[in-house]
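Problem 3 from the worked examples.
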Amino acid sequence: MSIELLATSIADRAYDRIRTDLVFGRLAPGARLRLDRMSGEYGTSVSTLREILSRLSSEGLVIAEGQRGFRAAPVSPAGFEDVAAMRLLLETYALSLSFAAGDLEWESRVVAAHHKLSFMERRMLAGDQAGTELWKRYDREFHQCLIEACGSQTLLDLYGGVFDQYLRYQMVAVVFRGEIAAEEHRVLLNCALTRNAEEACRLLTQHVNGCVAYTLESGALT
């Protein structure tokens, strides 16, 4: 591997790790991101870190403060409501396209994604909180599968970025609505298999708004 490719590979791995740590709350909202400390933790140079954090700033996960450096983006009730509204705008549009175009292979991926998600939900309902991060990864995978047949990579990329911001709020607040959310996921699966886009969009709106209301009522973002 050439020096240039090696440097790119190291930078890409560092970017992926930092982004994941931001989304899953390991880098706390509002925390100062000290380049000297992060350089050792993520195995990359300070100059590369600046480039990575500037990139993450454009994604809304980091705040650039000029000469003062960088901070993990803060969270707030209003911010969660804004991100949730954007998620609904993109996901309901993509659902209709995906349900119309999805084939048997797409159905199989949706069923498999729901199987993994429902397994983790049953564990959570039984009181096992050790797999919270894996549960949310499977939640993301299920919703992504529902819309992946929409036919627009641009739409999927936009949605992925917005969903990760939404997921970050969920991880900060440790949101799990129990059987209510699990049942909504089961009905969403059935809507996909029967191609009932209208009911899926209605239920998705209920699903997301219910999560927002539950989170705001908990006070976890204040």
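Problem 4, a separate protein:
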Amino acid sequence: MIGTDPVILQRSFGRFGAVSFASRATPESVANTPVRILNGETPCPRAYRDAGFRQVITPSHIAEWSLDQPDLRATLHPKWRNQLVKGEKQQVQISENIWDGSPHELFAQSVRLGRQRGFTSYPFKLLSAFASQNAGGAVIFEAYSQDTLIGACLILRHGTTATYQTAWASETGKALQAPRLLLWRAASRMASLGHSTLDLGIVETDRSAGLARFKLGTGANLRQLGGTWVRLNSRQKKLAR
């Protein structure tokens, strides 16, 4: 199984110098690291403060899909399941490939979509580094119709959890239910590999109600994260480069 150590990203900010950032980490995992900005994994304010952090943004919520169900398909909301069945009747081919970190159409489309909707995802270089340093830890699922790519999603594997990291579908893909076909295939595959949870990411009912319904329609549960925290003084020397 892929490791669970937190991924630490380092960026330079002018006169502030190099600033280290970790997302979805616990206070214990970064207590003795140079991390200055932390998106917390769990809602435990005292532990973050004891590690030297101060909260700057309140917690978000994520959708977690339990994969260790006797009948995973039965956990789907009826409407979600019906749309999946509709997609399964279309001539859509789903492929699965271990991603080695090389460029892929998924990421170009994800950046374009992000600009349209006003959101950003993890930098391509960070995802690429994860893929290249964790053999088998990144998997891209692709949806094709008549040999044309109509959708794709990236799944990251770490410990008992897998993460639905990045996804895109063309208008044709959406009409053919490619997002559901891709997510269902990914969830089924991750379950077969021994992952007990598929992290579907942040749920924002105000800004992205449609996406929230898509995620929660799988039967996923909402879980509160720990919020964003800042530490002025790190506990360890700079990261080795």
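Solution to problem 4. Confidence is low (pLDDT under 50) at residues 237-241. Residues 6 and 30 are 8 Å apart (CA to CA).
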